[in-house]
Amino acid sequence: MATAHHGHTHRLDLADATVREWDATVVAADADQGIVLDRSAFYPGGGGQPPDQGVLLWGGVRTRIAGTRRGDELYLVPEEGDPLPPVGTAVRGALDDERRTALMRTHSGLHVLTGVVFRDFGALVTGGTMEPLTARMDFDLAEVPADFKERIAESVNAELAADRRIEVRELPRDEAFAIPDIIRTATNLVPPELEVVRIVDIVGLDTQADGGTHVASTAMVGRVEVVKVENKGRGFRRLRLRII
């Protein structure tokens, strides 16, 4: 499928978000650009979700991966001073499991939040960022009730406790955009040249286009604490969250 590869790299993270270790071969290695593998489970970042970190093991050597760089290829960026494996080297890749799992829980929790806010208030997302177990999300929401913070927290946690399945699939662009309200952001961020769209469906609550990694059910998120609701002007509300 169109989203299964980035340059020469087969994206294992898109097919199975539970992959934490895998075998691969180095197809490019450059001190300025980074390392390109033929197969990788490193999520490269995007949609507010930061890139993964981890290690490559090869020939008794460990190369720490601090992040990624996207271009024509998916480059893995090593920690400064760590060695580059030569082209053709067989490596064992391994993600920082704690970080990736925390980001998956956080990302899925944000989808539940956007589903609840859209369902109850009809508001679209205008921005957001996340780190492991903490995030902010901005909504185009001019008016809110006095108990908005408490209502959102209660509704989101009820949906998490409902243990809704989270399913990921890919659809041809025309078929994906035939789904009502498939874009939950105020600006459509799906590239116009993308022919296959990845869909994340929280069954019975929220269906939207998304390229990130997610847990398998809402119960795996845990609970969400709405730390703060801020009025950022011009009808925009910012919610700050913590996953607990």
Task: Tell me about this structure.
The protein is of the alpha+beta class. It has four helices and 16 strands. The protein has helices at residues 12-15, 97-121, 148-161, 173-177, and strands at 5-6, 9-11, 21-30, 34-37, 39-40, 54-58, 61-70, 74-78, 90-95, 125-131, 134-140, 166-172, 196-202, 206-209, 224-231, 236-243. The protein has a six-stranded antiparallel β-sheet. Helix 2 packs across helix 3 (148-161). The longest helix has 25 residues, at 97-121. The protein starts with a strand and ends with a strand.
Helix-strand pattern:
EEHEEEEEEEHEEHEHEEEE
Number of helices: 4
- Overall helicity: 10-25%
Note poorly predicted spans. none
Mean pLDDT figure:
93
Number of strands: 16
Shape: elongated
* Major sheet description: 6 strands, antiparallel
How would you briefly describe this protein structure?
The chain is of the alpha+beta class and 244 residues long. The protein has four helices and 16 strands.
Question: Any chance you could write out the topology, listing elements then pairs?
Answer:
Blueprint: E1 5-6, E2 9-11, H1 12-15, E3 21-30, E4 34-37, E5 39-40, E6 54-58, E7 61-70, E8 74-78, E9 90-95, H2 97-121, E10 125-131, E11 134-140, H3 148-161, E12 166-172, H4 173-177, E13 196-202, E14 206-209, E15 224-231, E16 236-243
Parallel strand pairs: 2-5
Antiparallel strand pairs: 1-2, 3-4, 3-9, 6-7, 6-9, 7-8, 10-11, 11-16, 12-13, 13-14, 15-16
Helix pairs in contact: 2-3
